[in-house]
Design brief:
single chain
């Protein structure tokens, strides 16, 4: 279970990093364009508008992702319920039954003693 949790967090971090990078590229281009002399800016204003629209779209997407990530991080409070411990233990042992009877290995017969 711990391994699955770590793998899930790694995948989430990978996706988040990817999504964070998407809006950075058009923002970098806009920044470079804005540093050019005024005459250069005038000739490429159409390009800036297209790039700016793309950056705005990517930033909105990024904001949605960050919001979802924030929601995900707010884990709900645990809800405690009564559990039959004996039944939970029986179910745990049942998970391993296929291994108890593997071909070529000694058979294992579990013995359960509950109060």
């Amino acid at each position: 279970m711990q391994t699955e949790r770590v793998a899930a967090w790694r995948e989430l971090a990978r996706r988040l990093a990817h999504e964070l990078r998407n809006p950075l590229f058009p923002m970098q281009i806009i920044s470079r364009i804005c540093r050019k002399p005024p005459t250069r800016r005038q000739t490429i204003s159409g390009s800036v508008q297209r790039i700016d629209g793309h950056a705005e779209s990517e930033l909105a997407n990024l904001n949605t992702i960050v919001g979802r990530f924030s929601d995900f991080s707010k884990m709900p409070a645990p809800q405690f319920v009564r559990v039959n411990v004996n039944e939970a233990l029986r179910n745990a042992v049942r998970l391993f039954e296929p291994q108890f009877n593997e071909v070529g290995k000694p058979t294992i017969t579990p013995e359960l003693f509950f109060d």
